[in-house]
Amino acid sequence: MVRLGFIIGFIALLGAMLSGLAAYRVHDQELALDRIALARAIDVHASLVQDRLTERELLARVASGLFRAPSVLKPNMLEPLRSAIYAFKTDFVVAGWVARLQPNELAAAQAAIAAAGFPKPQIRDYGDKPIDPASLTQPIDVLMDLEPRSDETKGLPGRSYDRDPVRSAMLARARIEKRSVASDPVPLLRNNGPVGVIVAAPVIPEGATEPVGFITFSYELASLMLTNDDMSLFAVALKDPRKDGGELVANDQGIVSTRMTAADGPAPSATRTVSFGGRDWQLGYYAKTNSARRAEQTAIIVAAIGFAITAMVCGLFGYVAYNNLRLSREIQVRIGFERRLTAVIDELNHRVKNILAVIQSIVTRTLRHGADIDGARELLIGRIHAMSNVVSLLSESQWQGVKLKGLFEARAIPHADRIAVTGPDIAVSARAAQSLSLLFFELASHSDEGLSLVGKHPHITANWTVTGEGTDEVFHFRWEEFNTSEATRRPDSDFGLILLDRVAPEALGGTAKRYFTDVSYVYELIAPMETVVDMSERDRTDKLSAPVRPVR
């Protein structure tokens, strides 16, 4: 009996120890899985929010870039952009054209607003009080046009934003920094309207240094934050930039309100930072379930079962330990696969959106109102062939860049047989390849329109060099058309001028210039080598193509 008791006691003790160890193990695993699931859900959510914000900021930049020579007194400035801004489907509340008017232009602006059919054409401040032009010494920002036009929005044109603290600060910063800028959270449409943010993009005519107005888009905050998901593992809050310790939260109806966080209150489970309108915004994530309590409850159940079946605790522990190890590895492999899949989808979405945005801009600018349909068709086909060629080259290289000389293939570049190409055969990044392919096509497509005085076709040279070392390497590109003069060469199209002077240099982070010499036409582009090659893109592609391995 003593021996049996000793054995029973030993089994009971062993069962208690194993049950306790199993409970501890399950507790840690539940906590780890909950944290992994929560962290992954937060990362996916933050990535989606950043994508939405990037789309909306891109819409503002594209809209402002489509303005060629805007007339500030025109109350239907958004008419040419109406189809473009709706094509993006970015669920904006109001899109507006805010003109920067001189005091002597107020009367003409008021007449233009009245002629456009808006019910309140008088120029007034944001509190609807009339503005006396004689009291002004500086230009003011006045809303001249908006979209959509509804009973709720038709009364807004004619308002000046100069005395509104939020909107005036946003426009002032956009004017100084000359880029798209987001405002603080502010009620939209009316004082008790939905809370949202406004992004303003300055419109700067070619050759000017100061903006003549701004394209603005307002968005409800709840839709930007993606807050109305009842099945989510967390609740999301936006840190209020107007108040220390303040947060903006939305209920299940999408109504946003402000709350203050106490010093001894619950802290967010995680925070993420997203960029929008030239500033950083902090999202706080609060877990909806208590992972520690749930893990403790699970551990208690496991321990109770272990104590109740002490005779089988060793076998049970071995079985549970084996299955837990296998399950842990399967979960880690699955999580790794899902993360890789999410990264691949995000990268594909990003690249497809960029290509679609470029093609949309090409079509819009080529088939503009009043353009020669035959010439526009040829240019459009050629530009799309250039885009198709670079996409094919990038696809063949798994989007790790293409050789620069490969962009001069005859199937994509007109008169490629008459272009003398020299320079190191460097591999440029996907982003640089798209910009350079369109750039080479625009240069080549305009090179054979006229003949020189001696009747010879232009002779073209394209050469590039790389100077400097390390992070100071600089890419120099020079295109020169001999036997060409300003009188014989076809003028560049509107799209071509924007591409040559703004889009291509900005995409590569460099500068460009074009001019005529006594015997030739020259275009030069200078950019830092780190943006032309973009090793970060190559590294990211390598990571996406790497096989998934279980974490041990």
What is the strand content? 15-25%
| Sheet with most strands | 6 strands, antiparallel
Distance between the termini: 47 Å
CATH architecture of the domain at 368-545: 2-Layer Sandwich
Low-confidence parts: 450-455
CATH class (first level) name of the domain at 368-545 = Alpha Beta
- Oligomeric state of the chains in view: single chain
Q: How many DSSP H or I helices?
A: 12
Give me the Rg, rounded.
31 Å
The tally of strands reads: 18
Q: Secondary-structure element order, as H and E?
A: HHEHEHEEEEHEEEEEHHHEEEHEEHEEHH
- Secondary-structure-derived class: alpha+beta
Shape: flat
Helix content: 40-55%
The overall pLDDT, averaged over residues, is: 79
CATH fold call of the domain at 368-545: Heat Shock Protein 90
Key descriptive features of the protein:
five-stranded antiparallel beta sheet, CHASE_sf, alpha+beta, single chain, ATP binding, 44% helix, six-stranded antiparallel beta sheet, 552 residues, histidine kinase, flat, Heat Shock Protein 90, 12 helices
Question: Can you put this structure into words, describing what you see?
Answer:
InterPro entries: CHASE_dom (IPR006189), CHASE_sf (IPR042240), Sig_transdc_His_kinase_HWE (IPR011102). Residues 129-225 form the CHASE domain. By secondary structure, this protein is of the alpha+beta class. It has twelve helices and 18 strands. It has helices at residues 2-65, 82-87, 106-115, 165-177, 221-225, 291-308, 313-366, 373-396, 430-445, 494-508, 529-533, 535-545, and strands at 94-101, 140-147, 181-182, 186-187, 195-203, 213-220, 234-239, 246-250, 256-260, 270-276, 279-287, 402-403, 419-422, 427-428, 459-467, 474-482, 511-516, 520-528. β10 and β11 (279-287) form a beta hairpin. 30% of the residues are buried.
